[in-house]
């Protein structure tokens, strides 16, 4: 006689694990704090012939902006290291970010421009996404390195020289900031176009129904 005992359904693995979602949002907060406070710091000693509107800066005054900037810096560095280490230890970095080739990036970019790039499988990154994420990681590393030269120029003489001196480090820091702001803008645009990606990063599932089902099981 067949058993009437209810067999609990196995939980399918989340598309994005909890640790990744937490570190992702902490990185987002750190970048927001650093960019807005950095704009206020830039306004105190601009390197180009323009200033950022005070309404979109953080800190109120130079001292306050520096405090916010340092707080964001420590959050970004510590959380960023945790993000990278967990990605490497779990093997997720190798699975999700590679392979990536110029030909593959061009192919997926063309599919995206012609509205033929599939987003059905939210567990898979296309090669444009892989290249963008790898570039963002490299940009953040350069942002931190140039920031160290600006903050502690005397203590990091070799790094200062590798970046072309203090003034060049300031320019590199500004350019890297512009790149990460551009990356975030494109990232948000992609979320608007594919709203399920936001659910994945918030709940680990691509639909509210699947998230609720996993919660009940």
From TrEMBL:
**Which Pfam families does the entry mention?**
Ni_hydr_CYTB (PF01292)
The answer to whether keyword Metal-binding applies is: yes
**In which broad location class does this protein mainly occur, judging by the first location in its UniProt entry?**
membrane
Q: Provide the alphabetized UniProt keywords.
A: Cell membrane, Electron transport, Heme, Iron, Membrane, Metal-binding, Transmembrane, Transmembrane helix, Transport
Q: Which Gene3D superfamilies match?
A: Transmembrane di-heme cytochromes, Chain C
Membrane topology recorded in Swiss-Prot or TrEMBL: Multi-pass membrane protein
Subcellular localization, per the record? Cell membrane
Q: Cytochrome b561 bacterial/Ni-hydrogenase domain spans which residues?
A: 16-196
Q: Which residues cross the membrane?
A: 18-42, 68-89, 131-152, 172-195
Q: What does the similarity note say?
A: Belongs to the HupC/HyaC/HydC family.
Protein name from the UniProt record: Cytochrome b/b6 domain-containing protein
